[in-house]
């Protein structure tokens, strides 16, 4: 395994001479040791999944090593605990092993024996922590992939950035055209962060009346203005402990940008009508369909706010630039619509898929979802899609035909679970012809076979 983390030793012994000698032996062997004279003192730093192993004497002033073993086993069943005794009690050793002790050492023991047992425990702990870390990463990645569907290089990069940034508290700016899924990415960042238990508070800055924007963001006190009959908590304060999503931030009035900048810098706000600062701790995710740097250079957006928000960026590609994601997205939306409308999911024919692949998608993924709804309801206007597809100049005709052919082949391979011979029969073409097309169109047959490109619901 890679990315090994250092694992140390917690050593508990109330005999000064024995403790000093054992610590020296372990440190001479290149191991990191933290010594304690009692279980009570050591317990203060012990937690689940900590990068340590425990070596403890059995007979101690205060709690004994065997009593501590039961507590440690409840806290973390995989934590290696080595017990040491000078009394040669075989029955105690057997019972300790039954209770979950990793090993049992009888005093006096040689430095070589102590180091050998501890090294084995360290190796076991390191492996356990790596497995836990890997499983956690896989679980997070599966969750992100479930929210951000697609197999294009562009969406894979978006997933990588989300996975990286979610684990931090850094503020993020998301760029993308209308309908590309900026809110989905922001929710994904929140869901996979340490703030997931807090509120996710979306604010459409473009939909806020300029006269009410400060009250909406910062809240107000009763009597602050006409109609303010009671205190109101603003969006920023409501996002305390969670995530504040500022959509269409480029449309926020400049006067509100000044107060927002101060709130982000001080991490506190003042409600309208109050002089009392209120501390807030929220992560800010901003989204814009315009380049904020260019807007700031043209004095249409505050430069200081741009640089305050501009720490990490995620750029969402328009759907027309990741057309290979259309089949999997459309089928996912079709199945979702069928569940919502309590209807059977209709079969997506080749003609419909061809139109989807060549359509311009000015509304991006949001428009694709709406088309899937109409498709399930049986009210899809294929002629409108066909007119737009005919008029689009986004791709040359050969490129459009390649996209269509690739999608048809990939869909057929999914239906036949990657079996090329069965797929050739389904498409009514010779197997060698299909192999040639797979090579020319760079179709990833192995990915389809192992399930990473199997369509949702199949």
TrEMBL record:
<keyword id="KW-0597">Phosphoprotein</keyword>
<keyword id="KW-0547">Nucleotide-binding</keyword>
<feature type="domain" description="Sigma-54 factor interaction">
    <location>
        <begin position="148"/>
        <end position="377"/>
    </location>
</feature>
<dbReference type="InterPro" id="IPR009057">
    <property type="entry name" value="Homeodomain-like_sf"/>
</dbReference>
<dbReference type="Pfam" id="PF25601">
    <property type="entry name" value="AAA_lid_14"/>
</dbReference>
<dbReference type="InterPro" id="IPR025944">
    <property type="entry name" value="Sigma_54_int_dom_CS"/>
</dbReference>
<dbReference type="InterPro" id="IPR001789">
    <property type="entry name" value="Sig_transdc_resp-reg_receiver"/>
</dbReference>
<keyword id="KW-0902">Two-component regulatory system</keyword>
<dbReference type="InterPro" id="IPR002197">
    <property type="entry name" value="HTH_Fis"/>
</dbReference>
<dbReference type="Pfam" id="PF00158">
    <property type="entry name" value="Sigma54_activat"/>
</dbReference>
<dbReference type="InterPro" id="IPR003593">
    <property type="entry name" value="AAA+_ATPase"/>
</dbReference>
<dbReference type="InterPro" id="IPR027417">
    <property type="entry name" value="P-loop_NTPase"/>
</dbReference>
<keyword id="KW-0010">Activator</keyword>
<dbReference type="InterPro" id="IPR002078">
    <property type="entry name" value="Sigma_54_int"/>
</dbReference>
<keyword id="KW-0067">ATP-binding</keyword>
<dbReference type="InterPro" id="IPR011006">
    <property type="entry name" value="CheY-like_superfamily"/>
</dbReference>
<feature type="domain" description="Response regulatory">
    <location>
        <begin position="8"/>
        <end position="122"/>
    </location>
</feature>
<keyword id="KW-0238">DNA-binding</keyword>
<dbReference type="InterPro" id="IPR058031">
    <property type="entry name" value="AAA_lid_NorR"/>
</dbReference>
<keyword id="KW-0804">Transcription</keyword>
<dbReference type="Pfam" id="PF00072">
    <property type="entry name" value="Response_reg"/>
</dbReference>
<protein>
    <submittedName>
        <fullName>Sigma-54 dependent transcriptional regulator</fullName>
    </submittedName>
</protein>
<keyword id="KW-0805">Transcription regulation</keyword>
<feature type="modified residue" description="4-aspartylphosphate">
    <location>
        <position position="57"/>
    </location>
</feature>
<dbReference type="Pfam" id="PF02954">
    <property type="entry name" value="HTH_8"/>
</dbReference>
<dbReference type="InterPro" id="IPR025943">
    <property type="entry name" value="Sigma_54_int_dom_ATP-bd_2"/>
</dbReference>
């Amino acid at each position: 395994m890679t990315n090994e983390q250092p694992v140390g030793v917690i050593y508990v012994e109330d005999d000064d001479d024995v403790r000093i000698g054992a610590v020296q032996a372990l440190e001479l062997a290149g191991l990191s040791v933290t010594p304690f004279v009692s279980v009570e003192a050591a317990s203060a730093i012990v937690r689940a999944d900590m990068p340590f192993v425990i070596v403890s004497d059995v007979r101690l002033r205060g709690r004994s090593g065997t009593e501590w073993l039961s507590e440690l086993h409840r806290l973390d069943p995989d934590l290696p605990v080595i017990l040491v005794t000078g009394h040669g009690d075989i029955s105690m050793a057997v019972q300790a092993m039954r209770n979950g002790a990793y090993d049992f050492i009888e005093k006096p023991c040689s430095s070589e024996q102590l180091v050998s047992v501890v090294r084995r425990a360290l190796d076991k702990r390191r492996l356990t922590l790596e497995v836990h870390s890997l499983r956690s990463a896989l679980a997070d990645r599966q969750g992100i992939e479930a929210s951000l569907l697609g197999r294009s290089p562009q969406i894979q990069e978006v997933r990588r950035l989300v996975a990286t940034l979610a684990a931090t508290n850094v503020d993020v700016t998301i760029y993308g055209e209308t309908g590309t899924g900026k809110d989905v990415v922001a929710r994904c960042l929140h869901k996979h962060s340490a703030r997931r238990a807090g509120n996710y508070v979306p604010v459409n800055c473009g939909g806020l009346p300029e006269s009410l924007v400060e009250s909406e963001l910062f809240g107000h006190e009763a009597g602050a203005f006409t109609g303010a009959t009671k205190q109101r908590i603003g969006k920023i304060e409501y996002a305390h402990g969670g995530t504040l999503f500022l959509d269409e931030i480029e449309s926020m009035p400049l006067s509100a940008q000044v107060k927002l900048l101060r709130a982000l810098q001080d991490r506190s706000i003042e409600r309208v009508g109050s002089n009392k600062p209120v501390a807030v701790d929220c992560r800010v995710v901003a989204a814009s369909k315009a380049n904020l740097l260019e807007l700031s250079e043209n004095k249409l957006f505050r430069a200081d706010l741009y640089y305050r928000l501009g720490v990490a960026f995620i750029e969402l590609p328009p759907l027309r630039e990741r057309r290979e994601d259309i089949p999997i997205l459309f089928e996912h939306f079709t199945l979702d619509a069928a569940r919502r409308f309590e209807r059977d999911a209709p079969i997506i024919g080749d003609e419909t898929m061809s139109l989807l692949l060549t359509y311009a998608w000015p509304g991006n993924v949001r428009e694709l979802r709406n088309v899937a709804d109409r498709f399930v309801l049986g009210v899809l206007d294929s002629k409108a899609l066909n007119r737009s597809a005919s008029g689009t100049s986004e791709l040359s005709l050969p490129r459009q035909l390649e996209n269509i052919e690739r999608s048809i082949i990939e869909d057929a391979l999914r239906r036949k679970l990657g079996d090329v011979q069965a797929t050739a029969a389904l498409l009514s073409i010779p197997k060698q012809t299909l192999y040639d097309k797979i090579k020319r169109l760079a179709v990833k047959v192995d990915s389809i076979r192992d399930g990473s490109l199997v369509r949702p619901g199949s």
